[in-house]
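Blinded run. Sample ID left blank on purpose so nobody reads anything into the name before looking at the predicted structure. Input follows.
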Amino acid sequence: MSLAVDRFLTLAPRCCAVALALVGTFATAQPYTTPPPPAAPRPLAIAAPSEMKLGNGLRVIVARREGIPLVSAELVALAGAETDPPHLSGLVSLSAALMTQGTKRHSAPELAAAAEALGGSLDSGAGWNQSIVSMTVTTPKLDAALALVAEVAREPVFAPDEIERIRTQTLDALKVAYASPGTLAGLVAERLAYGAGPYGHPASGTPESLPRIARDDLVAAHRRIFRPDNAVLILAGDIAPDAGLALARRHFGTWVAPADPPPATPVAAPASSGPTVAIVDMAQSGQAGVVVALPLPERSGSERAIGAVLNSVLGGGYSSRLNQEVRVKRGLSYGAGSSIDARREAAFFRVAVQTKNESAAEVVGLVQAEIDRLIKQPVPADELAARKLTLIGGFSRSVETTAGLASAIRALVVANRPPGELKERIGQLEAVTAAEIQRYAAAHLGVAHRRLAVAGEASAFGAALKASEPGLVTIGQDALDLERGDGLSRR
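Blinded prediction complete.
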């Protein structure tokens, strides 16, 4: 016997044993036919946030999380894209984006370098009912980080070259967005839902509105929104409330509130007229975007929980009804889901699916049927329990980081809910019943409230869709005008 053969026979059993150990999970039969039951949700182990107020009206909320020396700071002005003037869509978003692009003391590169030296990133932006400056740093660096946050909030210069750079970047991003059927259908559905109201226009602006925005408009928008009596400073992490209040006084105590009142929050009312179903004809789009949307009214803490669980059942994740029906059973999309976007004392509900042009009408029917099922039939107990546990687990994980904790508090503040409601969230979700979901769906998700937008090659699905939606309007992509709330088409 050769040495090589002898060595092989000696090592082979050992190699095979190692190989079997590595693939044992695949080679061994499983002793269980069903997965183990999920564990009971654990209570949220955080203290209730502390809230204080400075003499100039600035609210200060501190959510203490000891153990890891990190703090996430968010300065939130309680106004956003809903305050955009007519024909200046995107004004507040553009103004907020420019705040970190230069101040009276530092240029944009200098601000970025200063934030990087502290181990963080200085960010700004705006959405509905909120404009934000944020930064996460280690606790010893918080004083210096808040100095930067205060500087960009109070002293932006809106340099002309930076305005043009950000405007150009935003216009380029819109070109990409408008080429996506899903994105375009979402924008149209929002316009159908809110009509000519302040929540109907695109928050990021349009290709027509952005070039109209002048530097004076940006300065005026910033002065109108960023003021201490319209703002909240959120500090989440390893910091005591007294220390947070002292830092707030140091960096924001001299911030003077203007004499005129803060901007009023408009009502997020649904459209009272106009089309309810629209097709955007996109030649050679390749795919179709389907969006069903509607506004939700003012909600209490329990109503928010009911809506969240309903959303989890319908379209919140891989195991949701929509994804199972559209993707898993029929293979009509890579994913189908729903979401609820919070507004001030209200919300916006949306179902979104991207599919083949030829299957767009079928997908519309499936989405409508799944919403109808929530109204007609109570959610079975086992399905409800599983979806609640998924939702509770996701929420618990989201607030494990300081940034996630700050974001959760901001969501409550923007919705005009008390920050202390954070600790009640899990209990509110656990308490939701099938009867409450059915009642909520019947009250808010009925056919009369829904708005439908489909973007894609209309020749592939228009006739089938018209048979079920006789009141639809069809608009060519080139004729679409998202600044209009009374027809969507240029005249």
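Unblinding after everyone has recorded impressions. The CA atoms of residues 480 and 489 lie 5 Å apart.
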